[in-house]
Write a structure and sequence with these properties.
The chain is built from 10 helices and 4 strands, in the order H-E-H-H-E-H-E-H-H-E-H-H-H-H. The protein has 202 residues and is of the alpha/beta class.
Length: 202
């Protein structure tokens, strides 16, 4: 998508990795989401050879409560005001196109807001959707986990440090049971018990 910009401006296009925002109170519990998004952005930029300036921004805020910042809309306004008028929106947290890419990013931000603030061009990188490489990647991940007998990782089952919602832990335990992880751990403990008993007797 960068190749669609004029050659003399291509390297100066600012890449805005736009992820779905969440309320700040969720982050205050210790949710790893922002760190995971940041890690994903770094991996993408590493693959791109750090070719362009970039930022991680947050979209789709609703309601009056504080959410993660900076917002995608506010960032676009600020960038253009500073003279950075060629931008690329990258829906880093979305694997397929839907209203938050096709309408919010394409129409509200790239077209309407871009025209309002005087941007030269705001493009949008397509979501993976059914791209063969993406599908092969998903299949490879599933295959790799199944071959290892790894149905879920402990990270998925860990609650946030400051979480006080009992339903969250209940949901995590359901995943542990549904994926067989809990049974695997109990079987491993049972297998270790006789060995430990023999060692104690010796």
């Amino acid at each position: 998508e960068l190749d669609t910009f004029p050659r003399d401006k291509r390297s100066k296009v600012v890449l805005l990795f736009s992820a779905h925002s969440v309320p700040q109170y969720v982050m205050d519990r210790g949710d790893p989401y922002p760190a995971e998004m940041g890690a994903t952005v770094n991996l993408v930029m590493q693959e791109l050879g750090w070719c362009n300036p970039y930022r991680l921004v947050w979209q789709s805020k609703v309601g009056p409560l504080p959410w993660l910042k900076p917002g995608t809309e506010e960032t676009i306004k600020t960038m253009v005001k500073r003279g950075q008028k060629n931008l690329m929106l990258i829906p880093i947290a979305f694997v397929n196109d839907h209203i938050e890419t096709l309408h919010e990013l394409d129409i509200e931000y790239a077209h309407d807001l871009g025209k309002e603030v005087g941007a030269e061009r705001i493009a949008r990188c397509p979501a993976p959707n059914t791209d063969p490489t993406f599908i092969e990647c998903l299949a490879d991940l599933v295959s790799t986990h199944l071959k290892k007998g790894e149905t879920v990782r402990p990270q998925m089952l860990m609650t946030c440090p400051m979480c006080t919602d009992p339903s969250c832990r209940q949901a995590k335990m359901w995943w542990a049971k549904a994926t067989g992880y809990l049974d695997q751990q109990q079987a491993a403990l049972a297998a270790e018990a006789p060995t430990e008993a023999l060692a104690a007797e010796a």
